[in-house]
Amino acid sequence: MNNFPVYRNFVENLPYNIKLKSRARALRKAGVLSEVIFWLQVHKGMFWKIDFDRQRIIGNYIVDFYIKSLGLIIEIDGASHNDKEEYDSKRENYFISLGLKIFKISDLRVKHDLNNVMMELEKYIIEEFG
């Protein structure tokens, strides 16, 4: 990505439900394995010097990862998303209405195909923000 200019999609004044703050902190501490694996690839600017937030509150929802400078949500879908198609769809439509983009990864792919997941994320960022 160093050779590709990436434009910013900073969405200002995102809604924030303060009541979710302790829940977001608890989720960070609990550390779902696939999220921890992904976090180790991206924290401290390790992934193209991009700043990732973990368990970020947006409105009445908590997203797995958020890139503020791009307005990009990264969701790792595991068992917690099973049988929640309607809820997930409502949630995604809400994020899109705020001008955010969403990149989804399956829990299993993070655990078993991490290199390709990271390459796909890089490609997605270049295509969407380049």
UniProtKB/TrEMBL annotation:
Listed Pfam families: DUF559
Manganese in keyword set: no
Residue spans crossing the bilayer: none
Gene3D superfamilies the UniProt entry points to: VSR Endonuclease (3.40.960.10)
Domain DUF559: 19-123
GO MF annotations in UniProt: methyltransferase activity
Keyword Chaperone: no
Entry keywords, A to Z: Methyltransferase, Transferase
GO term, biological process aspect, one: methylation
InterPro entries: DUF559 (IPR007569), Endonuclease_DUF559_bact (IPR047216), Restrct_endonuc-II-like (IPR011335)
Name of the protein described by the UniProt record: DNA methylase
Taxonomic source organism: Flavobacterium gilvum
